Amino acid sequence: MTEENDGTEAHLPFTGVVVLDLTLARAGPTCVRHFADWGADVIRIEPPEALGEDVIGRRHGSDFQNLHRNKRAIRLDLKSKEGHAVFLRLVERADVVVENMRAPVKDRLKVSWDDLKKVNPRLVYGSISGFGQTGPYRERGGVDQIAQGLGGLMSITGFPAQGPVRVGIPISDLTAGNLLAFGIAMALFDRSRTGKGRWVHTSLLESQIFMLDFQAARYLVKGEVAGQAGNDHPTFTPTGVFPTSDGHMNIAASSGRLWERLCDTLGKPEWKTKPEWNTAAGRLKQRAAVNAAVSDITRHKPSAHWADLFEAAGIPAGPINTIDKVFADPQVQHLGMGTPVHSPLFGDTRMVASPLNVSGASRNIRSTTPEPGAHTDEVLRAAGYPNEAIEKLRASGAI
């Protein structure tokens, strides 16, 4: 509960926005989850048959349930004439459609931007693909690890000479979803001034390259091709993982001032005047020796001991937690990143909270992931279909 809402249900930023969700897998649902969490009426559209996640038994798993909370769900056969007509009626009333189909699929189903903008010129249409909506890879399907490789990330992850290593989370999927949500929000804001919708799209590949950030800039500006640096920062020393008597910890003495503080904290003031180490370039050149010298000291005391000393000295440092320790951390608990929720599947449990904090608005999970088609009749009645028409659609297999 925030001070601003005094315990009452707050107005959420996307209240009144209607989103039709055609997404599968992770990147698209990651985008849509932002809108669902912050008040949009998200209608997830799935085929009448048990396809996709249902077939491989994932729907009732923790991952699927975390991705699709705060939504309504209908079943609709977009391949049928009747089902497609229902979808177009929903589009007429919608603000946003989000999809992550391969280009030939949405063209074949007649649910592309070119198809839907004729039905609703105010529609904001969001797309995620593997490699882009145009170009030689347009029709290829893409998944996170393929984008990590093609986009260069695996070449800079891991230790020197180790060989390519994937990042431990689906970072291309998550980044593409987060960026698309931002793009859709931009288009909605622009529509409030122009009255016109837009097509906003990104891809796993574009998002992955964007996330290369300074490594990409090093190449584009200076021609430097970054390699693997393991747990060390690519350009600053000492910044990385160091042993302690009860495990390991991160230390980031990335500037000259922080280096001097580190020397004093470790009881080695003489390092500050050592000719080979008194510049950033010198420390980088002698990274192995610097890291070994620091490690020879840190390994004799526990992580908590060093964390307290480094905090007092103003040196960024911290533990390396397993997932259980993350959610046991007092700061994480204070931030409420494990949101309490009562799930019909799991009972009283927690799910990952939105990382955003908006004054006057709660980020509580309002509803758990619905069963397939749980809101079909409700949504169609709101769209103007009488009960008789709904039964006809059901009998035809369209819903």
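The record above closes out task 2.4. Task 2.5 opens with a second protein, given below.
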Amino acid sequence: MLSKLFEFVKRYKEEIILFIGVVLISLLSFSVGYITAKKENKNIIRFETINDEKTATGER
């Protein structure tokens, strides 16, 4: 069983390294974006409704 694993790793060594590199770069990019978004202090967008007589009765 272990010899099959070593043979698999030997055969696909370049592809495994490429896959690990892509995953690490993706995780790094996500974490940098997450940290940057946390540091920004943006105001929260609030939606307010206006209650007046025309909208309450359905008139236009």
